[in-house]
Input
Amino acid sequence: MAERHVRQVTDSRVLAAMSHPLRRRLLDVLTVYGPQPVGALAERTGQAPANISHHMKVMRECDLVEEAPELARDRRERWWRPVSAGLRWSGRDFDDDPGEAAVLRAAESLNLDHQVGLVREWYAAPDEEQAVWGESTFAADRWLHLTPAELLELSRDLVALLDRWSARSAEAAAEPGDETRRPVFVFAHGIPATP
Output
């Protein structure tokens, strides 16, 4: 398979497909754990294999996932992997059609709900689990005075930093022996706002 890239989404059908909560979770599972068969995806998400197969078909039709037949032990087993390393989109690509603009707004809202939901789950985790991570978890925010060009520069700097750590994470995940290593979710938003 060729090197995976971050995909620029310009089709509202793709936004709608990836915004479904279970499909978003399936994409996250495939991103974090690599290619998985339907049975493993069902087990990780607590869903029936038939339900997983349905959602994988929807995502395949939108080119979000692809089959990985070389990993299957037989013709009945279906393995899946994400097509791209990530997704991004711009509101400008959906401005011309009110229906597409509505899908964009819904997708952005659901995406933010998903991100905040992961943080809320951590804050609700048992004290014993939180104690293992101690002060290593973080939340940070700042009020900055920026031009649009400076915000774009900051965005590129943050994405480059996350890309560097993502590559390191993937390499380290392959190393056995560190029981404390687990997936860590990091997200940031930079938006014009009024205090």
Remarks:
- Strands lie at 6-9, 36-37, 65-67, 79-82, 86-89.
- The chain has two domains: 6-124, 132-195.
- Helices lie at 12-19, 21-33, 38-45, 49-61, 98-123, 127-133, 148-173.
